[in-house]
UniProtKB/TrEMBL annotation:
Residue ranges constituting the Glycoside hydrolase family 2 catalytic domain according to the UniProt record: 349-478
Organism of this sequence: Termitidicoccus mucosus
Protein name: Beta-galactosidase
Keyword Hydrolase in record: yes
Residue span, Glycosyl hydrolases family 2 sugar binding domain: 91-165
Amino acid sequence: MASAPAKPWAPAGDLIKTPWAAQVSPESTLPEYPRPRLVRDAWQNLNGLWDYAITPKGAALPAAFDGQILVPFPVESSLSGVQREVGPDNELWYKREFTVPVGAAWREKNVLLHFGAVDWRADVFVNGAPAGSHTGGYTPFSFDITNYVKPDAANTLVVRVWDPTDASDHPVGKQSRKPKGIWYTAVTGIWQTVWLEPVSTNYIKDIQAVSDIDAGTLAVTVTQRSAGIPAREIADWNVRAPVEVELLDNDKVLATARGHAGQAVTLSLKTPILWSPENPKLYDLRARLLSDEKNADEARSYAAFRQISMQRDAAGIMRMQLNGKNYFHFGPLDQGWWPDGLYTAPTDEALRFDIIKTKELGFNMIRKHVKVEPQRWYYHCDREGILVWQDMPSTHSYGLGAKWGRNELDGGTDTLRTPLSKDNFYKEWGEIMDLCQGHPSVVVWVPFNEAWGQFDTDKVVQWTKQRDPSRLVNPASGGNLRMYKDAVGVLRPCADMVDFHHYPEPKLFKGDADRVLVLGEYGGLALPLPDHLWQRDGKNWGYGKVKFTGRDDLTAKHVEYANMLKGLVKDGFSAAVYTQTTDVEIEANGFYTYDRKVLKFDPAAARAANLEVIGTLPAE
């Protein structure tokens, strides 16, 4: 396999970039450990320059490659160095060589090949042999490549990717082959870190912790995998495998428990410090997989004591509660897009920037809008202390029977989804929930947005609640706000919330007495700044007809809306989501410009107004 002559890597195109773009280099591309919730010391980062080629769908492995791409930036992005479209009729090929380290940590160990995320279907080959395939654009996956690698020589890794984007009913979020308005540039291929990890034959696959703040307990489940046991027998083997779990604070062991893999063990703490945005206390976990009282594997994690629930207040209004107290959720709609990396932040510092600045503006929540982030983003939310509403990336489904019953209860018509499409939804939504479930910052699941691909709402809600009963479910943010009929034909609420959208000003709509009432989107006030625009032809836009001349009048309108919202909190709203964190492509309605170089609002005035909104709801 030949490749085109290598050219020095450089960002492609001349569109705006963030300040962190200058820090990106092939020699150090997102070098941070990618999985903070399950840590082992030994690993090898495979980010950097790979060969790439774009070929017609179904073609053989290309004899020659088109050039080099900087992984893990999407091929359509500037930081990939390529900035080319792929589309549903083509496939994207990647190739690189690697060697397995020879140190003691790798000796006589199995080698796992990890992908943070690849959009959408990935077929992986090691030294010409098929190592595995995965579908789904948002979650990590891995393959045991021990039998395919040569320990003392160079190995060839090839990845073939097909991504139809919106030419399918796969989850795509805001991606579009024809970006305009609220639809953005398509993302294809590898867009999160690729890495190798040595593990024992029997190793810890995951660590999940669920707290009970009333009992002062933490239920920790350690799941395990084994290279020597067929998949159908793993569940039975898990029950027999002994595990030991320790709860630590500043390296001091506070509690220890023993049990078996696949079953929860209970750690008790008399007076745990509760996690909240005001005090994001995290405890360390250490898990050991035992064999004949010896460590077969060991991994580090972390957990928090916190509870998300709902309860009626003194006026009979259903409210969300954090740790047993009424708690108003207020934050921005966060798209998670970057002008230089698209789905992929240029650096870990950049990834953390949006979270830090959101908190500095006085918010306590982020709605992660129809996108999923790398695991380090949720780790930063856990550490910094911010609540997360996690959306399911939506499908583009209009024309499939969907009708949006906007701002009415039990209105509209859901989407006609094929059985295959429904199966894929559950598969990807389940994987996203598994990814986020161990993060205390994630408190609300949002399976649908504005009737985009919405189907079988009550069944999806029941499935989501059964998979994770410890969090609240917002069934369809601004979508078809479904009721369902019980056995005697009475209309009953679906899930925990009724969520309305209204632009630009906040507005209260009638909900129902058994669900929390929230304003899932409002605002969207636009101020295009000429030197910071993705599109320079004047077609940038935001919600509403008000034209702003600068920071002062834009801030004044935000404060005006915040004051309106305070009255609506007293009347029933328990959460609000302002659109949005940053400008995105031609949308100019962010607190920050798309390149993150300018905060368009007065920070002190915006922070004071936002804190006043949160403080409108008494804790008791």
